[in-house]
Amino acid sequence: MSDANKAVALELYRRHNAGDFDVFDELLSDNFVEHERFPGLEPTRAGVRQLFETIHAAFEKATFEVREIIAEGDKVSVLARLTGTHHAEFMGVAASGHPIDVGVSDWLRLEDGKVAEHWGVMDTGALMRQISGH
């Protein structure tokens, strides 16, 4: 089960990096719950899709590089880096052209081969400093 769950998680990152947002409809369960809150977005599959569409619109070549992945039972833990170039408005900050490189930690619970829940932490403080040039 752990290897199959790792494969689902890795596919989620791979397809996201390719800009294939249908992956959220395919690999997140119908009753998916997002525990990492984002202002203005519902904690649902649709809200997560909207978030990542926004990230791709704001950051050219937005890529999540998986550095570590551990799975046990129905849980998968991922350490990753988000990189890209700020080329459109994001969270009220106009395009700066600055590169980003921020840490991300995701924890997923899978059920029947799909992601049922997500908890995560992104270093948004570093992200905002990088895009604002501070």
Write up this protein.
The protein has helices at 2-17, 22-27, 45-58, 124-132; strands at 28-34, 59-72, 75-86, 99-111, 114-122. The mean pLDDT is 95. The longest helix is centred in the N-terminal third of the chain and has 16 residues, at 2-17. Helix content is 34%, strand content 41%. A five-stranded mixed beta sheet has the order 1-5-4-3-2. It is globular and about 45 Å long. With 134 residues, it is an alpha+beta fold.
Architecture blueprint of SSEs:
Elements: H1 2-17, H2 22-27, E1 28-34, H3 45-58, E2 59-72, E3 75-86, E4 99-111, E5 114-122, H4 124-132
Parallel strand pairs: 1-5
Antiparallel strand pairs: 2-3, 3-4, 4-5
Q: Beta-strand percentage?
A: 35-45%
Low-confidence sequence ranges: none
Q: Gyration radius, to the nearest Å? A: 15 Å
Name the overall outline. Answer: globular
How is this structure best summarized?
The chain has 134 residues and is of the alpha+beta class.
Which features does this protein show?
single chain, 134 residues, alpha+beta, 4 helices, 5 strands
